[in-house]
Amino acid sequence: MKLVPLEDRVIVKILEEEEKTVSGIVLPDTAKEKPQKATVIAVGPGRYVDDKLVPVDLKEGDVVVFAKYGGTEIKVDGEELLILRASDILAKVVSE
What we know:
By secondary structure, this protein is mostly beta strands.
């Protein structure tokens, strides 16, 4: 199944966080914080403002940081994805 986001929505795949602390302690699932980094899977065309299309400034493959409780979780073909509005995305991770 292929998902195509509408308006200014973005579909992302959440990146798993480390399961160990710096000192080597393994954290159980209940103690881990919800991850906030993800890879962009698909991007909608943007939204209209005053009859002009304002595109989303992201592309497939970008790594982003998003609001902790933003978005809607879905499962597609056994894979957990998240649908976010562009406003829920806080930053794009850029490697130097």
